[in-house]
Amino acid sequence: MRPYKRMVWIVVFLLLVQSIGNLYLPNLNADLINNGVAKGDIGYIWRIGAYMLAISALIIGASVIIAYFSSKVSMSFGRDVRKEVFVSVERFSTRELNKFGAPSLITRNTNDVQQVQMVLFMGLTMMVAAPLTGVGAVIMALKTNVKLSGLLLVAVPAMGLLIFWLLRRIVPLFRVMQTRIDRINLVLREQIAGVRVIRAFVKTGYEEERFAVANEELMQTNLSVTRTFAIMFPALIFILNMSSIAVIWFGAKLIDSGSMPIGNLTAFLSYIMQILMSVMMAVMMSLMIPRAEASAERIQEVLMTESSVVETLTPKTPTSRKGVIEFKDVEFRYPGAEHPVLSGISFKAKPGGMTAIVGSTGSGKTTLLNLIPRFIDATSGQVLMDGVDLRDQPLEDVWSEIGFVPQRAFLFGGTVATNLRYGKADATDEELWTALEVAQADGFVKEKEEGLSSPVSQGGTNFSGGQRQRLSIARAIVKNPQLYILDDSFSALDFSTDAKLRAALEAHAKDSTLIVVAQRVSTIMKADQIIVLNNGKIEGIGKHADLMESCKTYQEIVLSQLSPEEAAS
After folding, report:
1. Which is nearest to 103 in space by CA: 162, 185, 197?
2. Handedness of CA 131, 134, 138, 141 (dihedral sign)
3. Whether residues 412 and 332 fall in one domain
């Protein structure tokens, strides 16, 4: 907001000019009637008329500039808030992302920011103008006729009681409305992401009903708000019209008795209208502010939430970067959880070899991998990279050494080349083709007319699951990191492609540390070190042959996929 402080002051100044002009016009109109029309002085009428036209032109010009600067300030404020929310979310660990949820974060950075942005715009144009005009009109009304001003003691409190009733009814509804919008986003997002599953299980009707319920809840809340507004405006107009009738009625009696000129009545009528219109503007703002307040609280909640993964203030750098990873009695548990997800995890992964992690679903494999790039932090114990605790190293330095391939292969909208250069912006075309060749992805990329410039839709939906996995692996290879982390990244590949990719990757990354999670036993049988996880604990570490003799859990996993003869080979 600092760069726009000058614009705000310009708006306030112009609103002051506009208010003075609006207050001065009824006074000129009264003079025109009392001294010009009543006396038939044509010259006076032209002169006062010219003044009124000039002031009207000034008011119109000020209104245009006010609208322009108010829009610029409010839109810029919205831009800055959205940026801050986005940056805050980028810093979140997996724990904070799960706490808020993607639908809620999307709503907070779109609808909630829009509500605050709109109130700022209306505040600059109405909230400042309303008290200026209202107070000025009261002074001018008292100056015009004190007796008639007594009507304000009835009209203004009546409006005040109406406002109080409306606020008590609408404020809770606005808070509920934002929650309902979150729910709509959640259901819609799930249905779009899981459309194939919905159709495959013939659940279209069920999902339609689920969305209908969420939609109905939002509609009912909106109806409650709209009905309240439907009562508000007629009631305010009624008070406004009754005030006008009362002014004309009592003003006519004063004119009849000679206590007040007819021009003063028209001026007083204008002032009473300005006062009541100022109150109406205040009512409108008072109804918008609660919803914006609820939105502001939700935005502030995101901005004030600190990530559980914190950048160190006293960074330490390893003497050499080799990619050695060591876990020392590591435990991880979610806040409030009765049992840890991981406990007693200790092992060491060295360069030039493959460390494979296997285990049943839910055994903690992905959680273990997420500790290395610090998507989450261990609740006890240490995770070291090249002999230094990860929490003592700058995050950027840690990430720069890691080539990460997530469990769900994700590609960004753009081209094949832009996706591959995501980790190394200055990579040459030759480096990209080398990475594609290692990842066994060069074949289908060459088949496309555009080659590296082939378009990639958001999420890579124009590629098959296996192609997305290979492109994700190629993206990590282009980076040429010291440490490769592959979280079940071969699951969509056929056995032949899997074998070729592993052989090529091991040859290409012979000086790097390779940590692989895999469900397919054939993928990890020849690993230098296999870690068997079960219920968050290590049940065995060693080579395939050793584990077949010493680890029952590993035996069960292997024999569920291979025959005893294949397992022994």
Report:
1. 185
2. positive
3. yes
What token pair was written down for 232?
């508000």
Backbone angles phi, psi at 260, to 5 degrees: -150, 135
Nearest CA among 349, 496, 478 for reference residue 405: 478
Place of tokens 């959640």: 186
Instruction: Tell me which residue range forms the domain holding 465.
Output: 325-568
Reading the block at residue 469, the tokens are 């996995």
HSE value, Cβ hemisphere, 13 Å, CA-based, for 539:
22
Residues 518, 552: Cα–Cα separation, whole Å: 18
Q: Phi first, then psi: give them for residue 516, nearest 5 degrees.
A: -125, 130
Question: Hey, CA dihedral for 421, 423, 424, 429, is it positive or negative?
Answer: negative
Q: How do strand 325-332 and strand 342-349 relate by DSSP bridges?
A: antiparallel
Task: Work out the angle at residue 363's Cα, subtended by the Cα atoms of residues 362 and 365, and round it to the nearest 5 degrees.
Answer: 100
Locus of tokens 């779109």: 110
Q: What is the pLDDT of residues 363-380, one digit of tens each?
A: 888 889 999 998 888 889
- Domain contains 310: no
Q: Hunting for tokens 């991998």 — which residue is that? A: 369
If asked whether residues 237 and 358 sit together in one domain, one would say: no
pLDDT 10s digits, 29-77:
777 676 766 666 677 778 877 888 888 888 888 888 888 888 888 888 8
The answer to whether residue 433 is domain-embedded is yes
Q: Among residues 362, 363, 390, 359, which one has the least CA distance to residue 376?
A: 390
